[in-house]
């Protein structure tokens, strides 16, 4: 969901992680608590509502554990952070807890939706303003429609992530199926090439025998027959055709190898990988997208260490960034790729293009789901959002710098030490089990 749409919702929403820490809120939530973003983000949700600490904690834990939405209909939460009757005192009825999966399918955050906020009456207030049934019904209906819209968008993001994983598995299967017929076709053509060489040797020896007879009639008949069927041309051209076929097969086998390398299923396992190989295989996969006018400059440090990661997931990130870079370049241009250690425990990857650049106002929202600067129908707005989630799941960070007319640079920082890798794997496993840190 775009930041603008998120803030326009009349439902108070905050997003928390496993430690119940608020990572994000919308304007409705902030307005009802009369606080600003910097005051709330990073604070424990349980501290904001101490009276309802147990209720919130149990429901958040349940969503992390079951990875399914939870609606607590009729529940009432009262904000007691300020004096009852003040402008910031509210109560919320009906609270929904929604799981937010990462690109890897693991629930890493929970969104808490507070519906039907109403002002609490002061103890000595003589009259209480109440909503009519029709007003209450309309507000509930509007809130329901907004939640449905949000859930549809979250579902689309999850489906996109699942689709990418399915494409990887299908591609790996196709690569395996292509390898088998290509292997015997290659073997047969090489055997045919051997046969052709033996036949050519036979024709050559036969010519020598005929010439040795000095029989002019026989020699003339042989030459007439060779001219009629263009034997010399056939033997030469057949050799060229076979060599070209073998070269074509070799190219297909290379493409299949690159496709298999790019999309090999990692089954969720964390393995030691050289990211330079993943970038190279990705470049080969998108060769047709960039080969005509875009120069690729690789700057790979020889000291680049292997990192513990999910290769197919990182390859998806490289694919998204490289295609975006290629599409940002009009006409001729250059993409520079840098891979080098940042320090003893981190690896840095930079993908820089000299394309159109990104406007300043878009830089803060390009990682939001469904945000895109591409024309309608040419982009889902999920590529960078999925990439950010994948990098976050690897314990890394992705940042962007851009200048209009000069280009864009995406920087990825990933942990590369064994200790960091163990922590990531442990955290990922904990998230799958639905655990949390207190």
Automatic annotation (TrEMBL):
Q: Which domain of life is it from?
A: Bacteria
Coiled coil located at which positions? Answer: 137-164
Q: Which InterPro entries match?
A: HATPase_C_sf (IPR036890), HATPase_dom (IPR003594), His_kinase_dom (IPR005467), HisK_dim/P_dom (IPR003661), HisK_dim/P_sf (IPR036097), PAS-like_dom_sf (IPR035965), Sig_transdc_His_kin-like_C (IPR004358)
Keyword tags: Coiled coil, Kinase, Phosphoprotein, Transferase
Enumerate the spans annotated as Histidine kinase domain.
Answer: 173-418
Catalyzed reactions per annotation: ATP + protein L-histidine = ADP + protein N-phospho-L-histidine
The reply on keyword Kinase is: yes
Question: Which molecular function GO terms apply here?
Answer: kinase activity
Answer whether the UniProt record assigns the keyword Phosphoprotein to this protein.
Answer: yes
Q: What is its EC number?
A: 2.7.13.3
Q: What is this protein called?
A: histidine kinase
Q: Which source organism does the UniProt entry give?
A: Salinivibrio costicola
Lineage at the top is: Bacteria, Pseudomonadati, Pseudomonadota, Gammaproteobacteria, Vibrionales
């Amino acid at each position: 969901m775009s930041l603008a749409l998120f803030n326009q919702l009349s439902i108070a929403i905050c997003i928390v992680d496993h430690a119940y820490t608020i990572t994000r809120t919308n304007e409705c939530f902030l307005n009802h608590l009369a606080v600003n973003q910097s005051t709330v983000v990073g604070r424990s949700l349980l501290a904001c509502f101490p009276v309802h600490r147990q209720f919130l904690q149990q429901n958040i834990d349940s969503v992390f554990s079951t990875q399914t939405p939870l609606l607590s209909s009729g529940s009432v939460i009262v904000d007691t952070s300020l004096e009852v009757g003040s402008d910031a005192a509210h109560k919320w009825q009906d609270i929904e807890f929604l799981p937010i999966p990462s690109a890897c399918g693991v629930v890493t955050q929970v969104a808490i939706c507070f519906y039907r906020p109403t002002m609490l009456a002061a103890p000595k207030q003589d009259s209480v303003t109440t909503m009519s049934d029709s007003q209450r019904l309309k507000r509930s209906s509007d809130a329901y429609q907004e939640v449905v819209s949000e859930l549809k968008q979250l579902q689309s993001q999850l489906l996109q992530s699942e689709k990418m994983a399915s494409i990887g598995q299908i591609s790996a299967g196709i690569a395996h199926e292509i390898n088998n017929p290509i292997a015997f076709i290659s073997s047969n053509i090489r055997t045919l090439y051997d046969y052709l060489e033996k036949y050519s040797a036979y024709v050559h020896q036969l010519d020598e025998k005929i010439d040795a007879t000095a029989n002019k009639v026989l020699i003339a008949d042989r030459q007439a027959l060779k001219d009629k069927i263009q034997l010399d041309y056939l033997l030469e051209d057949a050799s060229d055709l076979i060599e070209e076929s073998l070269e074509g097969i070799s190219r297909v086998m290379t493409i299949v190898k690159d496709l298999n390398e790019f999309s090999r299923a990692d089954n969720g396992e964390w393995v030691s990988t050289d990211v330079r190989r993943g970038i190279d295989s990705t470049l080969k996969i998108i060769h047709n997208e960039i080969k005509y006018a875009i120069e690729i400059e690789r700057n790979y440090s020889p000291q680049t260490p292997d990192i513990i990661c999910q290769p197919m997931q990182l390859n998806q990130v490289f694919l998204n960034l490289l295609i975006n870079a290629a599409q940002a370049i009009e006409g001729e241009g250059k993409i520079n790729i840098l891979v080098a250690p940042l320090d003893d425990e981190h690896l840095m990857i930079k993908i820089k293009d000299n394309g159109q650049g990104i406007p300043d106002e878009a830089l803060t929202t390009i990682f939001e789901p469904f945000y895109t600067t591409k024309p309608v129908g040419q982009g889902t707005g999920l590529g960078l959002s999925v990439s950010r989630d994948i990098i976050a799941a690897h314990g890394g960070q992705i940042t962007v710098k851009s200048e209009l007319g000069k280009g864009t640079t995406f920087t990825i920082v990933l942990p590369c030490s064994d200790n960091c890798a163990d922590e990531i794997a442990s955290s990922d496993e904990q998230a799958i089990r639905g655990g949390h840190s207190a």
